[in-house]
Amino acid sequence: MQERHRLGEEEITRELFRPLVTTTPMMWVGFIGLGAVLAIFVFAVSWMFYWGLGVTGLSRPNMWGFMIVNFVFWIGISHAGVMISAILRLTQAEWRRPVTRAAEVMTIFSLMTAMLHPVIHTGRPWRTLYWVFPYDFWRNLWPDVRGPLVWDPSAILTYLTGSTLFLYTTMIPDMALARDRTTGWRRVLYTILALGWRGNERQWKMQTIAGFLLSGLILPVFVSVHSIVSWDFAVSLVPTWHATVFAPYFVIGAIHSGVSAVVTLMALMRWLFRFDHYIRLEHFDAIGRLLIAVGTGWLWFFLLDIFFAIYPQEARELEIMQFRLFQWPFNVLTALIFIFGYFIPVPIWIFQRFRRNVKIMFWTSILVNVGMWAERYWLIKPGLMRKYEFTFDWNWYRPSIVELSIVLGSFALVGFLLLVFSKIFPPISVWEEKEGQHFAQQLQVGKRVVNAIVREF
Fold it and tell me: What is the pTM of this model?
């Protein structure tokens, strides 16, 4: 990258390890604020477990509500980590270095939070386990292995396992560095996690090969996870759900919200940890360019989904699409999705001076995810409310304070886990930053000296 600051190895180590040894007032505010919301989340879930699902707004035919909307949203956020890490690592993009680890960690915590929601949604999770394990083969009742609801757990667990291995492989050299600089319980922890890393040539070679292999292997899993989530809806008979465009539409939407979440995280890390030398304006510039393409792709599939619902001229499809577009409150949601998801952020990102403004990038990325959460709700709820043909089977969904607390708590959970992670492990890869400094050189081109990356293969 052209604006890299020349830093010594010792200086990089000291600055990137700073969050592990010092807790700033802003971090304390984060811990206390997020912890308080998390306590409300735990209370709401406990209340629901005690009194049952009746304390929520769920009722027939609205058996899926905020919790499933949240599940789809967090699965989408989790796509950013692999998208940025694997693809940019394979293409050797230099601007990946300060953002990959935070994005990978966000993937893991988002997936864990997403997996929590179907479990909570059962109302009695311990009974779910009782029904499933051990499976009662003697009753000759078999799950339909052709259904995406059966594929979901295996795809998400595979993605979680792969993402964890992917993150861990890149963290081993930093664990060894931390091991050599700490004492007490931290030294014991880092010694175990470093797996005897000494930094010899063979270990570096194995680590590099493992990183490339995992990057290549995780990409198909990354695409399949949200495709399978989309098929949970697409293979049903609910009007406006059974669209063939759902798989790519969900994947591009996931990337749009996930990469925007990475921008939010980059801005927060720059402010909280004072990482100005590492997360630079040129990184926001590069990711802003990427978001213009991703956002435009998402808008295309969003319009295509509307077109596919109208094109067959089926009465029930038309009726629900009219319900989505013109009736309260979904007409307001439609406007919010368009305005927050595309028409405010993307025109702003076209201009370089806005892409290089951290505050503008932060707030536009927040707007995108408000719009994308609304889009998930807009996709799921109208079809369920008008699922059946007869009007006496129609019903409104009004989320209770329990569901609102669970939604807010899920955001607090991911934020709290990210803060805890930054107190134990360096949030930016130390060895990759040093490697970037090693590759950075200045070359004489004509009468000018330009910054360049020189790498041997």
Answer: 0.92
